[in-house]
Structure formats: structure tokens, C-alpha cells
Amino acid sequence: MWSIDFRPLSAVALGLLVLASAPGVLSAQESATTSRLSGLKMSGDEPIQIESDKLEVRESENIAIFSGNVSVTQGPTLLKSGKMTVYYARDGGSAATGSANIDRLEVDGKVYVKSENQVATGDRGTFDMKTEVLVLSGKEVVLSEGPNVLVGCKLTVQMKTGEAQVDGCKGGGSGTGRVMMSITPGTQNRSGSQNQ
């Protein structure tokens, strides 16, 4: 029996936390919304627990596939999906022993991310470790914090700079090609001060 050291995934899990902890992303324009996210720091301080119905390691392909009721927990952050594929860099490390560096992570099948009172959902997500770009996409991507809701079809976060963009749904989702946002007055300041 072998074990896999998933501590390198902490950067990914924390990156996914951005989806749920981005109060600054709640501002909308016509077909795309760009915002600056604050407080985006990647840290491997907390342990990660990954559970799934099945784990398949394909050493020759440098991938590990978690499938069926995938659940990733790190601190207050929870990620759920139907499938998560971890792609390892071809640098001589072993995916089976956890000594390989992670290149990128892909999740799909009803992606759900929750951290405290914030939730993000979509059909699929990717995180590229080299470029530090996080993307959540699907027929409808929904970010919510209490009564505040932001809806589009694609969320792209540049982790290095904190820049985020939400693209509207062209022919899908609401079909309007626009980003939709609903904010309850007074709640954004209260939730923002709690997260700082």
C-alpha cells in the first residue's frame, strides 16, 4: 500500500477558496465583469483531506483521478465534485508516492465550493499551477454570499495579481450574454469587514 502526500494541493484548494471569498468580485458591467480581488494568498499551512469513491493513479500518464463523490476539505473550505483529475509535471517525480509536482488540477461534475457563508458553483473548474490561473465555468456559474448573488458562465482569476473576470452567458444560462448580479444594500460592507 502506498500513500500520497497531498500537501501541494493546498495551493489549489486555497485557490478555489477565491471563488468563495471574493466579495470584491460583486460588481457587474454588460457582458464581462473585471474586478480586483484582495487578500489572495496561497498557503500550505493547513492539511487537506480528500475523499472519493475511487482513486486511480496512472503513473505512465502522470495523473491521479479521484472519482465519485469527491470531497476536498482544507480548513473552512469545502470543494465537492463528481471527478477531480490531478496532472503531475513530468519532472521525474512519482504521482503514486506524492513526490511529483502538480501541473494542473481539473474538477467537473457539479462543482461546489463553500467557505463559511460564501458559495460558488459551476459545471467544471481548472487551476493551472504554473500560470496561477483559476477558471470556473459551465452553463451557469453562481457566486453567492448571503443574499448577494453573481451569475455568469465563466469566472477567471489571475491569482498572481488578484484580477478576476466574470463572463456572461452567450446563448446559455440566462441567454442574455450578460452578467447578472443581485446585491442587498448594506450586506456587502458587513460581509467585507468580516473577511478582512
Structure report:
- By secondary structure, the protein is mainly beta.
- A hairpin with a 2-residue loop joins strand 8 (133-145) and strand 9 (148-158).
- The N and C termini lie far apart (43 Å).
- The longest helix is centred in the N-terminal third of the chain and has 11 residues, at 10-20.
- The chain has one domain (7-194): Lipopolysaccharide (LPS) transport protein A like domain (lipopolysaccharide transport protein A fold, Sandwich).
- Helices cover 10% and strands 48% of the residues.
- The radius of gyration is 17 Å and the shape is globular.
- Strands 1, 2, 3, 4, 5, 6, 7, 8, 9, 10 and 11 form an 11-stranded antiparallel sheet that branches.
What is the β-strand count?
11
Distance between the termini: 43 Å
The CATH topology assignment is lipopolysaccharide transport protein A fold
Low-confidence stretches: 1-31, 33-43, 191-196
Q: Report on the biggest sheet.
A: 11 strands, antiparallel
- Based on the coordinates given, report the CATH architecture: Sandwich
Question: CATH top level?
Answer: Mainly Beta
Give the averaged pLDDT, no decimals: 73
Quickly count the domains: 1
